Prior knowledge:
Distance between the termini: 33 Å
Radius of gyration: 21 Å
Structural class: alpha/beta
Bound molecules: flavin-adenine dinucleotide
Strand content: 15-25%
CATH architecture of the largest domain: 3-Layer(bba) Sandwich
Number of helices: 9
Helix content: 25-40%
Number of domains: 2
Shape: globular
Oligomer: single chain
Largest sheet: 8 strands, mixed
CATH superfamily of the largest domain: FAD/NAD(P)-binding domain
Amino acid sequence: MVHGSATSDSNTLPTVLILGLGDTGVLTAGHLSRHCRVIGVTTKAMMISGQELGLRLTKPAEWRRNYLIPLDYYQRLKKVEIIHGKAIGVDPIARTAALELASGESRRVHWDYLVIASGVSNGFWRDDRLDTRRVTESRLASQHAAVTAARSIAVVGGGPSGISSAFNLKRVYPSKAVTLFFPGQQLLPGYPDSTRRYHRELLAKEGVTLKAGHRAVLGDDLTTSDWTHGCLEFEGDHPNYRADLIIWAAGRLKPHTDFLPKDMLDAAGFVRTDTCLNVEGYVRIFAIGDVAATDPLRCSARNWAYKVLCRNLLARINQRPLPARFRPPAYRWGSILGPQTEGLRLHSPSGKSRVLPRWFVRWLLYPLVVRRFIYGGLSAKGAGAFAKETVSSDN
Ligand SMILES: Cc1cc2nc3c(=O)[nH]c(=O)nc-3n(C[C@H](O)[C@H](O)[C@H](O)COP(=O)(O)OP(=O)(O)OC[C@H]3O[C@@H](n4cnc5c(N)ncnc54)[C@H](O)[C@@H]3O)c2cc1C
């Protein structure tokens, strides 16, 4: 797939190449395309968000409305040349990137400025495979079928994805046995204490069995991106646990950076990025999102960091000092369980929370604030397809 058009103007504009069109790549591409010639490289034929795993597993039709969107639906990407492929090398001196295309061919693209937004692998729901739309759809369908068929489900990991999965599974399927295993005594590392306490009580109230102090053993041949069934073993003398379905949300992130020069990376393989979102030592290269080592929580996928990146990159093009700094909060924040019948609970970095009513989330937050205001709206074709999908998924 290659779509989008380079106008005659765009031949005189600097070329910005964006590697990865997930949550942050799409936002950055959309904002820069008014000022530059933008080329985006994407492993997926659609925007597949890493958000709201629990909703994705339990209510796929509702999840896809906001989190699985064909790239050609986005208005702001109309002028962006989108290449369905994967970066396999970057040469900062020649200013080129080598790509493996979905068609099986290869291509070398020249850039003036580069944005790395290639994210991380994080369990079975986020990866760097080169997939067609059909493969994505069939994988989602088979995951949902596995959830429906399982009578007992073990979720491994006490972070937001594990908690969101365990809670939503138990809520939507109260007759299934859902057990959450996590290594320490506390859930949600990186969140304020009150947010951690709140979720622990809520999970217990919902009927999720909580197993604190259980560190699951990962065999050498097992990666956390597997979607398995069978027997869980633990460090220490805890008994084994057998489940029809094991969801690994153990937080073993793998940054998608194999294709980058090693001196761009920190010891864990993330991209060394300063507060301007500039890659350290490379004036023409910027990084954003889960791949960028901006702060201990690596939270530049949120907190309006794409605006910081775009302002600084445009200033760099115009040879001005970089005007914006990314100031991450000390604690994680946001929604953990996703939209529920009671509404959407948002947790602030200070540990307070507030509930947005369901009607507001459904009719204002997602369509107006997120899709139109943050992402710049969908084309008539996209909006039409959405209306149809919404009606059929609601029936
Ligand atoms: C509006 C918004 C709201 C959010 N709200 C919350 C919230 O409430 N709670 C919360 O916890 N988080 C929230 N997040 C953050 C979110 O959960 C993740 O942090 C975010 O999905 C990470 O985005 P990313 O672009 O870094 O990575 P991804 O979305 O994973 O995108 C990376 C893409 O790059 C591709 N890629 C990988 N390697 C290559 C390669 N070699 N070449 C080309 N492409 C490649 C990947 O396959 C993938 O498609 C929010 C994010 C946004 C934008």
